[in-house]
Amino acid sequence: MTTLPLMSIIVFAPIVGSVLIALLGRDPRVPRLIALAASTVCLAAAAYAYATYDRVAGGLQFVESAPWIPSLGVRYIVGADGLSLPMLLLTGMVMFTGVLASWNVTSRPREFFALLLLLVTGVFGVFAAIDAFALFFFYEMAVLPMYLLIAIWGSTRKDYSAMKLTLFLFAGSAAILIAICLVFFQVGAGTFDMRVWAEHGFGADFQRWVFLLSFVGFGALVPIWPLHTWSPDGHVAAPTAVSMMHAGVLLKLGAYGIIRFGVTLFPDGFASWATLIAVIGAINVLYGALCALNQTDLKYVIGYSSVSHMGYVLLGLATLNRFGFEGAVFQMFAHGIMTALFFVLVGYVYEKAHTRQIAEISGLMRRTPLVAAAFVIASAASMGMPSTSGFVAELLVYIGLWSLSPLLAGLVFVGVVITAGYLLRMLTRILLGEPSEAVAHLSDPAPVRLVPVGILAITIMVVGIFPSSMYETIRSATGPLLARVMGG
Amino acid sequence: MISPADTLIHLLPEVIVAITGAVVIVADLVWKRPDHVRPGPRPWLAYLGIAGLAAAAVVTVAMAGRSAELFEGLVIIDPLTTFFRLLFLGIAAVVLLVAVDPLPRFTRWDAEFHALVLWCTLGHMLLASAGELFTIFLALQLTSLPLIVLIGYAKRDKRSGEAALKYLLLVLVSTAVLLYGMSFIYGSLGTSTVAEIGDLLAGMTTVEPVLALGLVLLLTGFAFKITAAPFHYWVPDVYQGAPTPVTAFMSVGSKFAGFALALRIIITGLHLPLNWHVIFGVMAALSMTIGNLGAIKQTDIKRLLAYSGIAQAGFLLIGIAALSESGVAALLFYTVAYGLANLAAFAAIIAFAQSTGSTALADYAGLGRRAPLTAFVLTVALLSLAGLPLMAGFVAKFHVFLQATQAGLVWLVAIGVANSVVSLYYYLRIVWQIYVAEGESAPLALPWRSGVAMGVCISGVLILGVYPEPMLTAAAHAASALFGK
User: Fold this and answer.
1) Rounded to the nearest 5°, which phi and psi values hold at A129?
2) Distance CA A63, CA A71 (A)
3) What is the distance, to the nearest Å, from the Cα of residue B90 to the centroid of all Cα atoms in its chain?
4) Closest to A167 (Cβ–Cβ): which among B394, B399, B424?
5) How close, in Å, is residue B386 to chain A by CA atoms?
6) pLDDT digits (tens, 9 = 90+) for A208-237
């Protein structure tokens, strides 16, 4: 195995970049270069970790451990397993493409990229942390950059949306803080190491209620209905890279937290709430899809479709079987990539056409054939068409759901139909027909702007056609996890 | 029995501070400035004061290992005393430094200002070591009287005078309440040393009403000092009216002195069959909630920080409510984190007011462009107060909540974290003004002395946020002094 501290490189490269930008970023062209360098390092390290991860052995690998705050029992412990690796890879890709998509940010680029990198540090930190204090620390680190990125560089009701999003995120973290404090003393080992916590047999009642607490806390970020209202507003208001980060990665932070903290530590508590989670998941799928059907703003369509798609993650978990679990994690990755692609595309159209109203955009196929093609690929993934990553994810969830309850599967299938409905409606309007006034002067973007589009679109196809590597990785984590849940 | 010489050595830090105050006044008389000269800043007077404070700090550190009970228990020197001495010395130094530039704006009597700050600090230090009721009373007067004068220092400003009058009345009332309580306690128990009171109370199974009343009155007296609800009504007006350096001084020095005192009394003295968890818990919950809700609609940054200070007193009280050694340690760490962040914020506010003459929140629009470093410091300080990571406030809040959970006060933790969310809202509103709102764009030149103060405090905030271990150890050591016996 490698001796490189891969996880620390991933976590600290962005913050080093952030500090460098603060020190050297006077020239407006420098910050984006530093940001690109930092994200390249992260992506390379994440890809390397993903490639060299021993899928047969499974479990946590690349573990690093060092004392941090001994008097509170806090250690800096990072590592990765089959659950966090796809997320690290996803974050790396979204960040890399996000930086490229923000290549033309001209307003205060220094602050923009410094904050973006700070945000990414928090996200990477959460995915890599094994110590609960560290996890919480990194989670809250994302709060301020999130706020400022939307409030300064956002659009459409940005002040309101930024504050709403930040407070929801922070309120969720408040619930998590209580849960962490409770578990710390329940275990009584004077450590925040979640591996030690997982060994502890918590009582049934404790599991039940603390799981619920962490489910609500992390769930606010998923976003679970009815705590989802910040999410479409936030996605719409945020600038492109932040929307990508947000819908692509931040929502997964919530789902990841539920699995890493909630399900892993309180398997029985989780199982006892499975019905509730299934119901909320189904509501997410249907309600999100119905809302998306009714939107006139492209970003709102994508925003509500995220609410809908994250419902599959909840449904997959609630099935309590292997297909559902695998599908849930697969969906986290698949949705991250496709929604990032959507936001790159919408961001480009908005930047050039100065509108996101579906009614004012038509004929993109003629003006920007490559962008139109990418739109089709993203939509195909979103609809769960074969040969895209979305297909694998949704198929797994459906198989799991079917063996649990054909009725529920049938109900949720309505969601797929509605999804196809709003996506096809959107595609028809904006791609076909004569170019409208707003897009008359559009053409395909410069090559540098096409790189992120290409990377994300190709990833969707590659993972869709050759899902085995991702699948094996995920299974190495969900297998033992399911054994915990069923064994308890 | 400790010899007089030894006693003096133990009190050397206090002696140095007292003498420094006198030296500053004498120096002013010797190098008198002619009446017709337009008063400008005289930084060397402040430096003289800071040098005295530094000397006292050096002596304190040198004697850190020594504990003693002086004057038969009237004054207690232990690690807790050391901790608070250093805290108060640091606060005074920062206040003297940031006051240099704004002083000529509201007074020509700068030497007296420095001396009063020093003597008030002397009172704070004595409060942290007082182990007997009447010593406590004297030390309290020593802090209150200079403060009344300091609050009214801007004598051409009506609000300053009004604030001083309000504070005077408050001091009279709280002193009366305190004395009344002390007389009941002394009357019932026949002793006035805190340790003996604790021993006597520990043996009781029921409490006479007179004694209980005495204790409640005593605690009420402290509650005024630490700005805890429901004894907080004076805070916003006085904080807003006082000259800003004085507000900075009160918001940390005076408040922490109250806590230093309360800790000794509560932990050593209050061995009573009463549920103190709930009493302090409710007080903490009220302070946090009232302070935070009050802060939301403020439009003046000094007033906003006054309310935020009430809320922070609530968070500090959680540490007392836990009634455990680790709870006290959490409180002590919190005082340092809060002190640094609050002083950094006030240094920024003072610097800003120096150039613009304003403390209105709306005038902070565009500060991010006008003075990037000051804006950064103010933002980091406020977010530390809100308890975000990378800043000391995060560790402080986490620590306090953790200890409260251990004490079984989960309901209090729930109220606390909910309050953190509320507080983030109004702190972010200021951040919004600084970085998002459109405002004037002319660059601001800010006094470098405030810059130094900001730099020192904010470095502390960031270092403690990432590597809090040494300070946590120091706080735990200081807390152990109270529980060691």
Assistant:
1) -70, 140
2) 22
3) 11
4) B424
5) 11
6) 999 999 999 999 888 888 888 888 888 888
ipTM > 0.85? yes
Distances (CA, A) of A56 to A61, A475, A477: 12, 10, 11
pLDDT tens for residues A82-98?
Answer: 999 999 999 999 999 99
Please tell me if residue A151 touches chain B, with a CB cutoff of 8 Å: yes
Q: Does A238 touch chain B (CB under 8 A)?
A: no
Tokens in use for B236?
């916003």
B372 touches chain A (CB under 8 A): no
* CB-based contact B317:B285 (threshold 8 Å): no
Question: Model confidence at B398, in pLDDT bands (50, 70, 90)?
Answer: very high
Q: Do A140 and B389 touch (CB under 8 A)?
A: yes
User: Which residue of B428, B433, B472, B477 is the best one to mutate when testing the A interface, meaning the one whose CB has the most A CBs within 10 A?
Assistant: B428
Spell out the residues 6+ positions from residue B478 whose beta carbon is closer than 8 angstroms to its own: B79, B80, B82, B83, B84, B329, B332
Nearest-CA neighbor of A477 among A65, A207, A79? A79
Single-letter code of the amino acid located at A207:
Q
pTM of the model: 0.93
DSSP B104-172: HHH-S-HHHHHHHHHHHHHHHHHHHHB-BHHHHHHHHHHHHHHHHHHHT--TT-HHHHHHHHHHHHHHH
B459 touches chain A (CB under 8 A): no
- The span from the CA of A374 to the CA of A380, in Å, is 10
Q: pLDDT at position B195, please?
A: 86
Is pLDDT of B273 > 70?
Answer: no
Q: Does residue B27 sit at the A interface (CB-CB below 8 Å)? A: no
pLDDT category, B210, cuts 50, 70, 90? Answer: confident
Give residue B27's identity as a one-letter amino acid code: A
Are the beta carbons of A181 and B431 separated by less than 8 Å? Answer: no
Asked if A133 has any chain B CB less than 8 Å from its own CB, the reply is yes
Which positions ≥6 away from B358 have C-beta within 8 Å? B352
Read off the pLDDT of residues B82-113 as tens digits, 9 standing for 90 and up: 999 999 999 999 999 999 988 888 887 888 99
Set of chain A residues whose Cβ sits within 8 Å of the Cβ of B468? 69
Q: Do B436 and A151 touch (CB under 8 A)?
A: yes
Quick check: B266 pLDDT over 70? Answer: yes
Give B418's contacts in chain A (Cβ within 8 Å): 171, 174
pLDDT at residue B46 above 50? yes
Ranking A242-256, A377-391, B24-38, B315-329 by mean pLDDT, the lowest is B24-38
Q: Which of A76, A170, A205, A210 to mutate to test the interface with B (most CBs of B within 10 A)?
A: A170
CA triple A346-A347-A351, angle to 5 deg: 115
Contacts of A174 in chain B (CB under 8 A): 417-418, 420-421
**B97, B452 in Cβ contact below 8 A?**
yes
pLDDT over 50 at A256, yes or no? yes
pLDDT score of B485 more than 60: no
d(CA B485, CA B483): 6
Q: Which residues of A touch B414 (CB under 8 A)?
A: 178
For residue B443, the model assigns a pLDDT of 86
Q: What is the pLDDT of residue B420?
A: 93
Question: Are B410 and A143 a contacting pair at CB < 8 A?
Answer: no
Residue type, A468: S
Q: Confidence band (pLDDT; 50, 70, 90) for B55?
A: very high
Pick among B421, B441, B472, B477 to test the A interface (most A CBs inside 10 A): B421
Q: How far apart are the C-alpha atoms of B471 and A36, rounded to whole Å? A: 37
* DSSP 8-state class, residue A363: -
Q: Strands B75-77 and B68-70, how do they pair? A: antiparallel
The pLDDT, as a whole number, for residue A1 is: 47
